[in-house]
Write a structure and sequence with these properties.
By secondary structure, the protein is of the alpha+beta class. The protein has 16 helices and 12 strands. The strands form 4 sheets. Strands 1-2-8-5-3 form a 5-stranded mixed β-sheet, with helices on one face. Strand 6 and strand 7 form a beta hairpin. The protein is globular, with a radius of gyration of 30 Å. It starts with a helix and ends with a strand.
């Protein structure tokens, strides 16, 4: 009997031990899997994060061995590269200058160039006066390349090289930047500016971003294509807006994406310009605007531009002359509203110019040399607006700079914004201060219009349009921002999220 009880007790203890072991094993397995996940997932993420960078570094090493070095930096995620970081800094965090600042902190300033992966391809960022100058002035080493050339136009001046570029640039400079052309333009655009400002005063409250775009677009289309405002031009305006958004979007081409919409809008713009071109051929219209000028001009061999060249350059010139100029004018009104002392100086100078002309509302190109403070306001506005934060180039061959190699075929992003907002070059750079232009900027630190042989062909036209608007604004009107602390959206162009809403009225006597 005792033996039976002992046997049963032993069996019970054995079963208990087995159950305990089984439970222990089960618990161990349950703990093991989360432990594995917690350990493996970070390692996997780290491997993914470095895979793109490792891939390009390995390819570079296989090609060059240990003799050369890629610029410092990091390629970011597979396929996306550093696009998410770019979008985070420019659109979500609204601290665009931190994008370059983070690279400097992580990799040092060094030669002022960094490797990255943006807009669908590996690239090198240049962001110092010396590095930018080197890229701009090395025509043999660096060619032009927009992320998607077709959006600007394969035959446009900004996408062609060599003799084709020189030929187109000469034609366009003659049409819009010579003194006689600027005199004509000043006379043509001012009546529309005067009428628009009067209409704004009647409205009382405006969204400056929208209203300035309207009048700038109307003037550009009048100068370039002789089109007056209509439902068609309103539609064209919307197509250009979508095209601009696509220029810095990730190149995903399927319905619903910004890039896909931009491509569709470019096709519609092509159709409009080609229709206008064909209509002009039939009536042999006189060369009295830019489009007809491009159609009629012959080179030294008597050759005219092809239809594709005319269309591509018209689209490119409207993009360059419309969006950037309208944005700069909007920022001028914004900063002047927040800088009463600067506005008072601007008003005083422009009132004096008007009085010297017998009270005439209109200014001419010949008045500009007397408008010295106005010129400083224009330069400061352009510096702070940073409408184009970067300029696109491509390495034609392996290029050595600062002890590093920029690989052949890699895009080079000349990051001009980083110069204009750097406290090393501009004291308190995010403060609007036209008087800083009493002294010229340090060499190489002001590159709003690019540099080298491809400096913006329309820079004088842009400054003239801004000056004209500032003259009529300061001599006849006053305005006040409704949301002076509105957040800024930096893509595709910088602008207040409320569209720079403001009260607007005639200047009190």
């Amino acid at each position: 009997m005792c033996r039976l009880r002992t046997s049963r007790a032993c069996n019970a203890r054995g079963i208990s031990r087995s159950m305990a072991i089984a439970v222990g094993v089960g618990v161990g397995e349950w703990v093991w899997w989360p432990g594995l996940a917690l350990g493996a997932v970070p390692l996997l993420c780290l491997a993914v994060w470095h895979s793109t960078d490792a891939w390009y570094r390995a390819a570079f090493f296989l090609r060059h061995g240990g003799r050369r070095r890629l610029p410092p930096g990091h390629m970011g995620l597979p396929f996306l590269g550093e696009t998410l970081s770019f979008v985070w800094h420019f659109k979500l965090a609204r601290r665009p200058d931190d994008f370059i600042a983070a690279k400097r902190r992580a990799h040092g300033s060094g030669a002022g160039i960094y490797r990255t992966h943006l807009f669908g391809s590996p690239a090198v960022i240049a962001c110092s006066p010396a590095a930018n100058k080197f890229v701009f002035q090395s025509a043999d080493n660096f060619g032009i390349r927009w992320p998607v050339p077709e959006l600007i136009g394969h035959k446009s001046m900004v996408n062609v090289e060599g003799a084709s570029h020189a030929r187109l640039r000469g034609i366009i400079l003659t049409a819009i930047n010579r003194p006689s052309s600027l005199r004509t333009i000043a006379a043509v655009v001012q009546p529309r500016v005067v009428a628009a400002l009067a209409a704004w005063a009647d409205m009382g409250t405006i969204f400056a971003s929208t209203e300035i775009k309207k009048v700038t677009f109307a003037n550009i289309f009048r100068m370039f294509i002789s089109m007056e405002p209509s439902p068609l031009t309103e539609q064209i305006d919307q197509w250009f807006g979508s095209l601009m958004a696509g220029l810095r979007a990730f190149p995903l081409d399927f319905p619903g994406t910004t890039f896909h919409r931009a491509r569709k809008c470019r096709q519609k713009l092509n159709a409009v310009f080609r229709h206008e071109l064909e209509a002009r051929k039939k009536v042999d219209k006189k060369c009295d605007d830019l489009m007809s000028g491009l159609m009629c001009t012959e080179d030294e061999q008597g050759k005219r531009l092809s239809d594709e060249e005319v269309v591509d350059n018209m689209v490119n010139l409207v993009v360059a002359g419309y969006e950037s100029t309208a944005s700069a004018i909007m920022w001028a009104t914004y900063h002047l509203a927040k800088s009463p002392a600067a506005l008072a100086k601007l008003r005083e100078e422009n009132m004096a110019v008007s009085e010297s002309k017998g009270g005439s509302l209109m200014i001419t190109h010949d008045d500009l040399p007397r408008m010295k403070y106005t010129a400083k306001v224009v330069e400061e506005t352009i510096r702070m607006a940073n409408v184009a934060p970067m300029v696109h180039r491509v390495a034609n061959r392996d290029v050595e700079y600062g002890g590093y190699t920029i690989p052949a075929g890699w895009p080079v992003l000349v990051w001009v914004r980083s110069l204009h907002t750097d406290p090393v070059y501009y004291q308190d750079p995010l403060t609007f201060n036209p008087d800083r232009w009493d002294k010229p900027a340090k060499p190489g630190t002001y590159q709003a219009f690019g540099g080298g042989y491809r400096i913006c062909a329309g820079n004088m036209l842009a400054k003239l349009q801004i000056t004209i608007m500032l003259h009529h604004l300061s001599t006849g009107y006053e305005w006040e921002l409704l949301n002076p602390d509105a957040k800024i959206n930096y893509l595709p162009h910088p602008r207040p999220m409320d569209g720079a809403s403001m009260t607007f009225r005639k200047l009190r006597a």
